[in-house]
Amino acid sequence: MRNKLLLLTLLTFSSLLQAEDMVLTEEQEANWQIKVHLPEKSEKLPLGEFIAEVVTPPTLLHTISLPFEANVKKLNVANFQQIAKGQVLAKVTGTEWIATQQQAISDAIAFKHHENLAQRKNMLCKEEIIPQKECIAANVELESDKTKVAASKALLRSYGASDEVIMTLFKELKLSQTIQISSDVSGRIVALDATPGKSTSPQDALFVIQEKGALWLESDISVGRTQALKEGQEVEITLGTHTFSTTILQLSPVINPHNQTRHVRFLVPIEIALFSGLRTTANITVAHHSYKIKKNSVIKYDDKQIVFVKTKTGYKSVPIHILTEDDSYYYVKPSVALQHKIATTSLAILKNMLGGDDE
């Protein structure tokens, strides 16, 4: 507490050192018709209006593609359709899909054969009819076939086959000409690159599904306007008919050299009905303590912006630090001097008393 009081005293003393007093008589003040107003405290700092765009976070976008060349046999959904988790989107076929099933069937048959063989040999080994080494060899071969079967099942799963399809294939040893493509998530299709009869390759994104979740609002803001910003800071944004409170997610650590801006990303609350791709003007206000003073109260003097604070004997000039502005007001850094009334008229006369040129 002592340190805080000392710092406040030093700041106040420093401000007074920079101030220049001007003594005025009542007659002079009346003749010059000097009007005053009291600066208003403000907890909100208008950052300004900026072009902003609503974008979808990459974590909400789910892409479905196939690891093999295929042909679309049937399409069950349309672009922009709402879908549920597990819903069948399409049926496809392909030579790799058929060949993979054939290999899986071959592995299953070999496993079954060596399983029966190992069982018979193990019984004969127990009765000491055949050498123990034949049983060991049979069991090693059986374990090798187990590994092959597990690998075949894993490959089928990577192709999109469900556990039910795999179980049926190994049980019935019968090929399926097509495979179903199902969605792993619920959401809405926002990109569709599949049509009946179309041939696809592994690099093709057949479906892009957007899950429900909070979107982002992004804008490029001039460097000067971002000085009071920091990640996690609360802000208020007006976008069209929507006004909402949110936070700054990310603030670019680099400046765009072409337009001297920083990229700022805000979180759009999930309950705000906005759509990805919307590009419009956003009015942004940040939570920040400041003083709000009329623009006609400020004048330039010796490369500084100053105001004239009312005293018992006249006025004194006080430099100010402007944080931002709107059409009518400057929002300035708080100081003890701004707790008093300041002049709004006849600033040029008061400035001349300091010996400066009019601006």
Automatic annotation (TrEMBL):
<protein>
    <submittedName>
        <fullName>Uncharacterized protein</fullName>
    </submittedName>
</protein>
<dbReference type="InterPro" id="IPR051909">
    <property type="entry name" value="MFP_Cation_Efflux"/>
</dbReference>
<keyword id="KW-0732">Signal</keyword>
<dbReference type="GO" id="GO:0015679">
    <property type="term" value="P:plasma membrane copper ion transport"/>
</dbReference>
<dbReference type="GO" id="GO:0046914">
    <property type="term" value="F:transition metal ion binding"/>
</dbReference>
<feature type="signal peptide">
    <location>
        <begin position="1"/>
        <end position="19"/>
    </location>
</feature>
<dbReference type="GO" id="GO:0060003">
    <property type="term" value="P:copper ion export"/>
</dbReference>
<dbReference type="GO" id="GO:0030288">
    <property type="term" value="C:outer membrane-bounded periplasmic space"/>
</dbReference>
<keyword id="KW-0813">Transport</keyword>
